Amino acid sequence: MTVPDVRTRWFRGVRAPGAKVRLVCFPHAGGAAVSYHAWATLTPPEIEVVSVQYPGRQDRLRDPCPATLEELADAITAALRVELPNDLPLAFFGHSMGSSVAYEVARRLRDVPGRTLTHLVVSGRPRPRLPQEKAPRPVPTDTEILDRVRLLDPEGAAVYEHPDLRPMIMPALRADFGLLAAYRPTHLHRLEVPVTACGGDRDPVCPVEALSSWSDVTTEGLEVRAFPGNHFYLNSRKEELLAFLTSRLL
């Protein structure tokens, strides 16, 4: 009997009968659920991999992008309650912008009965900054956004130069960068789950030492792990990263 894959409004994934934990993955700015598609084939059957599909991209191109990162986190938390079965404990993995989104969903999940989060894994981003630490910024221009993308992902940035694709994919990237520019939580919430912070040892915007800032959001300890690579080390070091995550989740 074939088990249907996960395909809801907000989530995409591959069912893993007999899994012990469901790993929910949160994409980077401009990213989509497909970023984690290959993870299901590289993790043991005890881990079911599900990724979030943000609005405004791919098959959700016509869905409006949220106005704030908090609004996005509210919507994902609500979707977790109604679109995924309550049959497995959860772990979160977020990369870059996805780290902040995963953290916001994690703190909201504490108020959702019956949903158990066991681990938060963040990647390529320091913990959220408070208003007194870093003031909100103006929404960057398209030129500034694309300069940033070229810095973080020189290979992936080429898609934004394609004249036919750019009008379709630029709105989501622009919206995501707008969320990040405005996102400044008023205070930090300490999660009662362990946090693991991963990053590339040559990341130009999130040096390894910045990952230790995530110790401020957990009562259960922080582990920092660096991998060879730049901001998108998780693409070139996918197998190594997933072997490490497996050792921490099972």
Report a brief summary of the structure.
With 250 residues, the protein is of the alpha/beta class. It has helices at 39-42, 69-83, 97-109, 142-152, 166-182, 233-236, 238-249; strands at residues 6-7, 11-13, 21-26, 47-52, 90-95, 117-123, 195-200, 222-227. It has a single domain, classed as Rossmann fold (3-Layer(aba) Sandwich).
SSE blueprint and pairings:
Layout: E1 6-7, E2 11-13, E3 21-26, H1 39-42, E4 47-52, H2 69-83, E5 90-95, H3 97-109, E6 117-123, H4 142-152, H5 166-182, E7 195-200, E8 222-227, H6 233-236, H7 238-249
Parallel strand pairs: 3-4, 3-5, 5-6, 6-7, 7-8
Antiparallel strand pairs: 1-2, 2-4
Helix pairs in contact: 2-3
Percent of residues in beta strands? 15-25%
String of helices and strands: EEEHEHEHEHHEEHH
What is the SS-derived class?
alpha/beta
Low-confidence segments, ≥5 residues, pLDDT <50?
none
> Number of DSSP helices?
7
Specify the overall morphology: globular
- State mean pLDDT (0 to 100 scale): 96
CATH top level assignment: Alpha Beta
- As for the CATH topology, it is Rossmann fold
Largest sheet geometry: 8 strands, mixed
Total separate domains: 1
Helix content: 25-40%
**Which value, in Å, is the CA radius of gyration?**
17 Å
Would you identify the CATH architecture? 3-Layer(aba) Sandwich
